């Protein structure tokens, strides 16, 4: 038997013969087609009417249907329409056998769903050639179906992995929110309010405060470069450097009198810079503001290491920009950090906000900047504590058109007015 008479069969997996259903009212014509197809290696089934063909398809779905156009009862095009309407996943290749070869007849058959035409009578060579062309199309359809199944399985696995990842990231978000401790803290006449809003599940910003001793307390704001899990992991590592435990907090030590004390902010900045470059050895850096506040007289000593400028609002509503900028932590070995000293009088407040606030951009490409920050202070002059930082967060989000492009964090230190 020559290769051209062999049916196209699956090249991978189990071999099977393609099933061809021949539908024709003429027993002699069906027998002739059966002989040609059987010799070529196809499995052949017969039906004498369209109705009988549909009944056969209820139990077995053929690969190919070869149907006469004109039959008693249902016509070939009508049979094709019924099969197409069945909605089966497996595609059946439909060949119409007809004596009609006019363009209008061909167009009518195509609209009914037919794939190919053979004009009766046809030679065995033409019959098998058209059939092989149809089988190639079916093989492509089978391969596409298998590819789609593999894709569905892959997408299902990815969705399951995404659900697990989202669950883990949500838990990480809750843990990260817990790093700042209480959103509000009180140290004598001073109130400290924190805001932490990651752009994704987790972020690289951190704010907080801790008691140094009965007289002084520390406040910090950190912004790790980058986003996502890597930044969050470094943030968690840095959080231990500002914990409430003297054994872990890099800012605290016990002095010669056995009392808790704090290292100067500039010394702490140099220590953290060395830690990043010599010990942690990570390809990232962070910006920071660390301030030590004396509750007895309101004196604030702070270091600014690449973080946006703190803003000081006096009791009369005026706003001052604090600091000179400074180098980020973890960029240059032996970097020097200068301290800034100021005094918070009763009714004054100091805001330390991340670049996610300062650099928020509107639809026109304009950044919020100092002008926008001053406007937020003026608009929310009567808001205090958590109400202020939350109002600021909403203002920033509204300015950016509802799009949070970066982690947003801030810490607000307020000195209460004298009674």
UniProtKB/TrEMBL annotation:
Top-level taxon: Bacteria
Gene3D superfamilies in the record: 3.40.50.2300, PPM-type phosphatase domain (3.60.40.10)
Keywords noted in UniProt: Hydrolase, Phosphoprotein
4-aspartylphosphate: residues bearing it: 68
GO molecular function terms attached to this record: phosphatase activity
Single GO BP term: phosphorelay signal transduction system
InterPro entries: Bact_Sigma-Reg (IPR052016), CheY-like_superfamily (IPR011006), PPM-type-like_dom_sf (IPR036457), PPM-type_phosphatase-like_dom (IPR001932), Sig_transdc_resp-reg_receiver (IPR001789)
Response regulatory domain span: 19-135
Name this protein carries in UniProt: Fused response regulator/phosphatase
């Amino acid at each position: 038997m020559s290769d051209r008479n062999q049916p196209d069969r699956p090249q991978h997996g189990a071999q099977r013969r393609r099933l061809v259903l021949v539908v024709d009212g003429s027993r002699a014509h069906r027998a002739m087609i059966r002989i040609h197809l059987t010799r070529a290696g196809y499995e052949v089934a017969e039906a004498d009417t369209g109705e009988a063909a549909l009944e056969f398809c209820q139990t077995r779905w053929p690969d190919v249907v070869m149907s006469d156009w004109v039959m008693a009862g249902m016509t070939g095009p009508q049979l094709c329409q019924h099969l197409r309407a069945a909605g089966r996943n497996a595609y059946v290749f439909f060949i119409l056998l007809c004596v009609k070869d006019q363009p209008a007849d061909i167009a009518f058959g195509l609209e009914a769903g037919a794939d190919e035409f053979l004009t009766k009578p046809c030679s065995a060579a033409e019959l098998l050639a058209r059939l092989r062309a149809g089988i190639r199309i079916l093989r492509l359809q089978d391969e596409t179906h298998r590819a789609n199944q593999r894709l569905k399985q892959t997408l299902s696995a990815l969705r399951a992995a995404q659900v697990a990842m989202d669950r883990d990231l949500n838990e990480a978000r809750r843990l990260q929110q817990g790093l700042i401790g209480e959103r509000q803290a009180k140290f004598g006449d001073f109130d400290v309010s924190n805001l932490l809003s990651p752009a994704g599940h987790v972020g690289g910003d951190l704010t907080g405060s801790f008691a140094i001793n009965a007289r002084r307390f520390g406040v910090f704001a950190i912004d790790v470069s980058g986003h996502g899990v890597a930044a969050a992991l470094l943030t968690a590592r840095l959080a231990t450097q500002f914990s409430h435990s003297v054994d872990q907090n890099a800012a605290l030590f016990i002095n010669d009198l056995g009392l808790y004390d704090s290292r100067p902010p500039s010394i702490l900045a140099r220590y953290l810079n060395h830690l990043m470059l010599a010990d942690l050895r990570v390809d990232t850096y962070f910006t920071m503001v660390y301030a030590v506040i004396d509750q007895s007289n309101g004196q604030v000593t702070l270091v600014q290491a690449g973080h946006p400028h703190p803003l000081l609002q006096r009791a009369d509503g005026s706003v001052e920009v604090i600091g000179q900028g400074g180098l980020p932590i973890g960029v240059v070995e032996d970097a020097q950090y200068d301290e800034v000293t100021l005094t918070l009088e009763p009714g004054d407040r100091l805001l330390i906000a991340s670049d996610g606030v300062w650099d928020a951009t509107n639809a026109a490409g304009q950044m919020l900047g100092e002008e926008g920050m001053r406007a937020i202070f003026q608009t929310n002059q009567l808001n205090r504590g958590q109400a202020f930082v939350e109002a600021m967060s909403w203002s920033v989000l509204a300015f950016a058109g509802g799009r949070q492009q970066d982690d947003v964090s801030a810490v607000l230190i307020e000195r209460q007015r004298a009674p």
